[in-house]
Amino acid sequence: MCGIVGYVGNEHAASILIEGLKKLEYRGYDSAGIAVINNKEINMIKASGKIKNLCEKTDDGKSISGTIGIAHTRWATHGAPNDANAHPHVSNNKKFAVVHNGIIENYMELKKELLDKGYKFNSETDTEVIVHLLDMYYDKDFKIALMKTISRLEGSYALGVICKDYPDTMFAAMLNSPLIIGVGVCENYFASDVTALVQRTKNVIYIEEGDFAEISSNTILIYSNTGEPVTREKTRIVWDVEAAEKGGYEHFMLKEIMEQPRAIKSAIEPRIKKGCISFEDSNIPTDLLEGISRISITACGSAYHAACAGKYMIEELARIPVDVDLASEFRYRRPIIDKSTLVIVISQSGETADTIAALKEAKENGASVLAIVNVVGSAISKLADYVIYTWAGPEIAVATTKGYTTQVTVLCLLSVYLAEKNKKIDAETALRLTSEIQKIPQLAQRAIDLNPQIPYLAKKYHNERSMFFIGRNTDYAVCLEGSLKLKEISYIHSEAYAAGELKHGTIALIDNDRLVVALACNDRLLDKLISNIREVKARGAKVLGVITERSTKIIPETDDIIYIPVGETLFNAVVQVIPLQMFAYYVALHNGCDIDKPKNLAKSVTVE
Ligand code: F6R
After folding, report:
1. Is 328 a pocket residue for ligand 1 (Cβ < 6 Å)?
2. In which band, very low, low, confident or very high, does the pLDDT at 608 lie, cut at 50, 70 and 90?
3. Is the predicted pLDDT of residue 1 greater than 70, yes or no?
4. Which of 93, 138, 434, 450 is most exposed, with minimal Cβ within 10 Å?
5. Extended beta strands in 311-358, E state
6. Closest CA to 366 of 338, 341, 340, 385
7. Which of 315-329, 427-441, 505-519 has the lowest mean pLDDT?
8. Is 355 close to ligand 1, i.e. is its CB under 6 Å away?
9. 604 lines ligand 1 (CB under 6 A)
């Protein structure tokens, strides 16, 4: 995830900014840059790769003089990770420099407008429109130019801006992307994350959505988006650097679990235009998705589980047959694919060796390959014909959480899009389903809030030797992921079973006190699931029910309950998995496991 730092004071800005960037390295990034005002000129230096490359170019910042500046670590979203796309971006006349986190959803329209007015673009980023808008609106008043600029932006932003005509003042603004102001003595800061600031100051101001701030060494003025002065309280941070990196959470995994409502929103919102789903950011030709006879999805691990959920959704709505394959099997089984098959590969890292091999196999057989990927510039994003990014931000914990939920979210969007394009649903139904998808970020937050009992459930069950997860339809797909989360971080054996399949053999393993986690969120199949629960209870199992308000009749059949908010059943996989991730997390915590780096596992499996 990109990181931002800004400084104004009396000290050497570049050294402070580079120190701040180093503290943000944990967030993951692929390039870095810095811009400082000196002698009424903006001096900007950028470097792809690690911060050490920026340090080498600037002699650890010593070669850049000045006491006011902005800096950035970029995690590529729009455009490859290279020097040109790294931030800051400067206006053509080098009057303004800007750093930005977030996504400007309407950047294509804005870019066209600015190109027509003669502005030259030097990068592929969405961010660059901001700096040209500032220049366009500038009439000797920095504040007015910024207000007019942010009024044109749709999407999310945390912005830091400097202007060479204002050598003592920097501006910061935020909407749907975190930004804080650090309060010092005769110096002030802004940053995307307290980690960048805690060694310099513990006094911070959390500005609110839509606010912007005018910051000099002795004053901080905060305004609402209409330009009215507003008061925001100063807060004292109690975290040390390590706690700050994890946002105050004990582990990256828990931080990433909690980030999911925002990550899911980032996957959805840029793809909704006037209530309709659009993948224009992926340049997918419409005729590619119209009249497809078959879809083949291939992936590994959790991404494969996302594919399993996708199969239910796409087949149900778009009525296109979907095969789901483990990439390690697909590549060696001479899959039957041709030009009329759309192959979808799913990968958080974009570097998984088996998925890359499956993608190559598909292309050799003449299929078009659409990749659903998180990491921009990764091998899969380069090899695929089309890419839909999940925009989850970097995942640091080895066990995926937000990577998986954003993959399923993209599949929700794709299922409605395919259904409409192939005339399997009418426009009205597409609008209704799209608005259901837009509710998912809120439902994800509710799934977290509804379940404060999870740490207690984890304490109760952390000594189990083995568990089963059962469910039907998309509930079964979620079982696969819930079970994997538990085994990979807590080392407790667990198996996911389609609830109706258990009786065909595996039920022999159900005995006294065995814990069965039963997912009962599909009302249509509830009675069937109740029968399956009775089968395991009759053999002495304890049952942890995962239910919605519509499935409460299952409560008497269970020993404990996890609650899932009611949403569109077909899309509920995204939300349902979150309490199961939390359950796995707390079980592992009770068992003293190394949660962020489980034994024998790597974040990116680049070997066969
Ligand atoms: C599990 C997990 C793995 C990955 C799998 C594929 O928590 O993270 O199962 O899902 O290794 O990785 P990507 O998605 O990077 O291709």
Report:
1. no
2. low
3. no
4. 93
5. 322-326, 341-347
6. 338
7. 505-519
8. yes
9. yes
- The predicted-structure confidence for 139-167, as pLDDT tens digits, reads as follows 999 999 999 999 999 988 999 999 999 99
Bridge partners (DSSP) listed for residue 464: none
Query: How far does residue 393's CA lie from ligand 1's centre (Å)?
Result: 15
Residue of 297, 298, 302 to test ligand 1 pocket, by largest number of atoms within 8 Å of CB: 302
Which residues touch 40 (CB under 8 Å, ≥6 apart)? 164, 165, 167
Residue 427 amino acid letter: A
Q: How far is the centre of ligand 1, averaged over its atoms, from the C-alpha of 395 (Å)?
A: 11
Distance CA 122, CA 505 (A): 63
CA nearest neighbour of 283 among 395, 83, 84, 124: 124
The residues near 334 (Cβ < 8 Å, ≥ 6 apart) are none
State in Å: Cα 561 to ligand 1 middle. 28
Q: Report the nearest atom of ligand 1 relative to the CA of 301.
A: 9
For residue 595, pLDDT beyond 90: yes
Closest CA to 440 of 546, 572, 317, 309: 572
What confidence score (pLDDT) does residue 297 get?
Answer: 98
Query: Alpha-carbon distance 274 to 68, whole Å?
Result: 41
Mean pLDDT of 486-514: 93
561-576 mean pLDDT: 96
Residue with tokens 């996708």: 310
Rounded Cα–Cα distance for residues 362 and 340 (Å):
12
Please indicate whether residue 31, judged by its CB atom, sits closer than 6 Å to ligand 1.
no
The DSSP bridge pattern shows strands 212-215 and 515-520 to be unpaired
Reference 517, options 481, 542, 490; nearest CA is: 542
- Tokens 């009749």, located at residue: 553
How far apart are the C-alpha atoms of 6 and 172, rounded to whole Å?
9
DSSP state of 124: S
pLDDT digits (tens, 9 = 90+) for 83-104: 999 999 999 999 999 999 988 9
Which domains does the chain show, CATH number per domain? 3-245 (3.60.20.10), 254-438 (3.40.50.10490), 447-590 (3.40.50.10490)
Contact (Cβ atoms closer than 8 angstroms) between residue 221 and residue 183? no
pLDDT at residue 10 is higher than 80? yes
Question: 137 CB contacts (<8 Å, ≥6 apart)?
Answer: 144, 145, 148, 149
How is residue 393 written in tokens?
Answer: 């931000």
Interval 235-279: pLDDT, tens: 887 777 777 778 889 999 999 999 999 999 999 999 999 999 999
- DSSP lists the bridge partners of residue 322 as 295
CB contact at 8 A, 100 and 172: no
Tell me how far the alpha carbon of residue 32 is from its chain's centroid.
Answer: 20
Angle at 336 between CA 330 and CA 341, to 5 degrees: 100
**542 Cα to the center of ligand 1, angstroms:** 30
- Label residue 408 by pLDDT band (50, 70, 90): very high
